[in-house]
Amino acid sequence: MDSPSQDIDLSQYNTVLNVFIELRGRGVVVSTQDLEVLKGWATERLAPETLCQSILAIYRDCQEKGTRFPTSLKALDRPLRRAVREANEY
């Protein structure tokens, strides 16, 4: 029997990773922890489009408040999950 993670097309989450890398502005290398977070989102089938929209919203919020945008997906995990939950409630 196949595990649920084998049914997931991780290529859809490349866009999420690309958006994060572009906004982070610190090169193209990400940590193993970041890749594990991304894989977790894929396993939980969080919509890549919603994740990208949420990352952009967090980025804009950081710009407005004059704070630094997180440099890891691990740091974005909780706020993104919250944003996805809120988006799904509407």
Keyword list:
90 residues, disordered N terminus
Word description of this protein:
- With 90 residues, the chain is mostly helical.
- It contains four helices and no strands.
- Helix 3 crosses helix 4 (73-89).
- The longest helix has 18 residues, at 48-65.
- The chain starts with 13 loop residues before the first helix and ends with a helix.
Number of strands: 0
Report the total helices. 4
Please mark out the parts with pLDDT under 50 across 5 or more consecutive residues, or reply none. Answer: 1-5
**Quick check: average pLDDT?**
87
Shape: globular
Q: Percent range for helical residues? A: 55-70%
Based on secondary structure, the structural category is mainly alpha
Largest sheet: none
Strand-and-helix sequence, N→C?
HHHH
Q: Report the span from N to C terminus.
A: 35 Å
In short:
With 90 residues, this protein is mostly helical. The protein is built from 4 helices and no strands. Helix 1 packs parallel to helix 3.
Give the helices and strands, then pairings.
Blueprint: H1 14-24, H2 32-43, H3 48-65, H4 73-89
Helix pairs in contact: 1-3, 3-4
